[in-house]
Amino acid sequence: MSMLQNVTLGQYFPGTSVVHRLDPRTKLGLALAYIIVLFIARTGLSYSVLALASAGIVLLSEVPIKLVLRGLRPILMILSLTVVLHVFTSREGVELVSFWFIRIYSGGVIQGFMLAFRLVLLVLSTSILTLTTSPIALTDAIELALRPLRRFGVPAHELAMMMTIALRFIPTLLEEAEKIMKAQLARGADFESGGLLKRAKSLLPLLIPLFISAFRRADELAMAMEARCYRGGEGRTKYKVLAYSRLDLYAAMCFTAVGVVALAL
Amino acid sequence: MPIQLNNVSFTYSPGTPFERHALRGINLSIADGEFIGIIGQTGSGKSTLVQLLNGLIKPTQGTVRVGDVTTTDKGVRLRPLRQMVGLVFQFAEHQLFAETVAADIAFGPLNLGLDPSEIAARVDEAMLTVGLPLEMKERSPFELSGGQMRRVAIAGVLAMRPQVLILDEPTAGLDPRGRDEILTRIGALHRERGITVILVSHSMEDIARLVSRIVVIHEGEVLHDGPPREVFCSAESLSGIGLGVPQATEILRRLRLAGWNVPAVALTLAEAHGFIVEAWRERSGEA
Ligand SMILES: Nc1ncnc2c1ncn2[C@@H]1O[C@H](COP(=O)(O)OP(=O)(O)OP(=O)(O)O)[C@@H](O)[C@H]1O
Ligand SMILES: [Mg+2]
To answer: Which end of chain B is more exposed for a tag (fewer CB within 10 A), N or C?
Structure first.
């Protein structure tokens, strides 16, 4: 009966591992760099090196493997489709199977699995980033990363503030939704049976109170921010100042080494 | 609708880092027509406990039996159970959604599939029971005051005619007069209809004079369970968990510490007054 319990966003897994302690900017940058290397890499050997690196990071992060792999679930369909399409349509390499109308060539098999592997690594690297970095820290890092773009009119601070507020309130609203849902269930509401129209209508008793409370909260938050003299990003200092440590240097060095090796092979 | 909780535990988000044991090993049986106060500090598990009683959540361990329904049984039908066990949530005014007060109160009966004339009759009855004038029927619930909205929400549950009525902090955030009126009406409801009423509160003062049995929850466990007079005898253990006893009992306790010969417990100030006057007479008689 955990109705909304399984909806987690950002899926942050709190911890104190080396990976958790890295500066979010470092993690964001390294994840991007990893993805770039992943797309430049061509050979199976390069992929193996990158996969090993990923595995190492997962181990270091102390996040349960099960949780890391859960991130792959949504892309299972895409993965199988990629493999199937390549295996059955490619005409490269040696013919492996020739049966009725099915022809399978070695090139297709290799390509299919390589591509799927690349996708897996891509998703794993972003999962590790979001699993070990709290959403708030991540927004901070994004704000700093966007800051140079301010001169082109990108409202870096405002974007980050919007993201922070949205992230902060998603769990609150989910909790609220669960409460209202329970309250209506207690009055005999039925959210599950009936046709599409009936079901859409049955959501009204949930959505209306939820919107009302969201607006009320927005109002209160705006008031509270104003009462504490919020006036946008100009000249605003931070409570938690991001600071690089020696750890970030090590991480960057290790990563450069992995990248160079992966691309050289 | 006797209710029986057998060794019930409940854990939020089990198996995740956010795991939280809200209740552990609760044994409780509630007979028909009882008036029970559940009391405990913030976060002690009161709201979790009452949600178990109508199957909104199911125990992680143990069983909850209501009448002849066990909520954890396979294929159990929960909607009839929710009609029999009416639950008014904490801050129930946040659940209002309809365009008019009447439509909101009618939501529950409508879900029961009753016919319109019956629903209309129940709406009127429920409004009168909670003390809302019938002229308010066509008003929007969002134009009402907080206390009035709370009453609309309570009426919405009463209109389902539950045999067990559970109210989760029905007076939180109301002014003293609104609080007293709602409590008085709940007391009358219990007397007149003979239904089981379970009142959740974190204020001893509120429930001392109303209920016939108090269950004290502390950190997810039952700490005391008995008639108010019995429970209030353990003033030390109660104040140890930040609950305290009603003022009337507290006065007597201090007088006893000062060497006065008064009974240990009084539920209302009037009762305490009587005891003190008597003790005073006794003393002056001796002198
Ligand atoms: N939906 C939830 N998910 C996770 N933990 C929860 C949830 N609801 C309650 N808890 C936790 O379970 C414990 C008991 O909560 P509960 O709401 O039952 O307390 P309560 O006695 O009703 O408190 P209050 O007087 O504040 O209403 C608390 O520690 C709370 O943090
Ligand atoms: Mg509560």
So the answer is: C
In whole angstroms, give the CA distance from residue A86 to residue A108. 5
Of B64, B77, B94, B158, which to mutate for an interface test with A (greatest number of A Cβ within 10 Å)?
A: B94
Both A32 and A111 in a single domain? yes
Q: What does the alpha-carbon distance between residue A94 and residue A104 come to, in Å, rounded to a whole number?
A: 9
In a domain, B105, yes or no: no
Same domain, A14 and A76: yes
State whether B171 and B286 are in the same domain.
Answer: no
Question: By C-alpha distance, which of A136, A127, A179, A184 is closest to A160?
Answer: A136
Answer yes or no: is B277 within a domain.
yes
Q: B228: domain CATH number?
A: 3.40.50.300
Residue B94 placed within a domain: no
Give the neighbor-by-neighbor strand order of the sheet with B196-201. Answer: B85-88, B164-168, B196-201, B35-40, B213-218, B221-226
Q: Quote the CA–CA distance of B211 and B226 in Å, as a whole number.
A: 11
Give the number of beta-carbon pairs within 8 Å between A and B.
64
- Helix axis angle for A106-132 and A44-61, nearest 10°, is 20
Percent over 70 (pLDDT), chain B: 99
What is the pTM for the complete model shown? 0.77
* Residue B279: domain span: 246-287
> What pLDDT does residue A8 have?
46
- For A86, the token pair is 């390549």
B62 and B2 inside one domain: yes
Q: Please answer whether residues B38 and B215 qualify as being in contact, where contact means their C-beta atoms are separated by less than 8 angstroms.
A: yes
What local confidence, expressed as pLDDT, does residue A10 receive? 57
Rounded-to-integer distance, Cα A137 and Cα A164, Å: 9
Contact B71, B40 (CB under 8 A): no
A27 and A125 share one domain: yes
In chain A, the number of structural domains is 2
Ligand 1 pocket, Cβ-based, cut-off 6 angstroms: B 12-13, 20, 22, 40, 42-48, 90, 202
Place of tokens 């991001």: A242
CB contact under 8 A, B95 and A190: no
Residue A191 domain boundaries: 155-234
**Which residue numbers in chain A have pLDDT < 70?**
1-10
pLDDT score recorded for residue A167: 77
Number of independent structural domains in chain B: 2
CA-nearest of A14, A260, A3 to A132 is A14
The CA distance from B63 to A167, in Å, is 37
Tens-digit pLDDT profile for residues B42-67: 999 999 999 999 999 999 999 999 99
Q: Which residues of B touch A182 (CB under 8 A)?
A: 51, 56, 89
Q: Is residue B56 part of a domain?
A: yes
